[in-house]
Amino acid sequence: MRLLLVAVAVLALGGCAGPGADGQSSGTAPLRGFGVEVDQAVAPLVTTVHLTTCGSWGCYEQDVPLFVSGPTSALPCPSRSAEPDAACGIARVPGPGPGYGYAPVPALTVDDVTVTVTTPSGAPFPVNAKVVVHPSTVCPDAPGRPGHATVPDARPSCPGGAPQARLRIAADGTVSQSS
Description:
- Keywords: Signal.
- Residues 143-164 are annotated as: Disordered.
- This protein is mostly beta strands.
- It has one domain.
- Helix content is 7%, strand content 40%.
């Protein structure tokens, strides 16, 4: 289950950067910004956060809607030619799970940024945290991990790469950069 959630997060963070149906590059690049994860224990209480991201290029503010990623179920194949036990997709079903969201930050670079994460006043679970984030470059069509490879050092670049990072809101309300 956790591996599936990680795969979904990686796909979301990678944008649509994978190769096309013919194995060639789709020509699209990974999205520039932050994935936001929320601990399962508090995910239903944190439905939106406000991010203020400040770097050498200035500050960017936005509200980020968060969604609970409940349990998943296998979808049957639409074709009768598939094996009876074959699964051709997944579907989220209502239930407990971690929270997730995505915050595009158009001006984001691989330089360190300061991110302030807050919940609206009166929110059932208050969050008010500031964290220094070190974005990494995510490369499209990299060998071995099409569309989802991360350049470890964060400084190197790749054609079509984009800076990204993941933020994690813990059950105690703290915010950190997750890997």
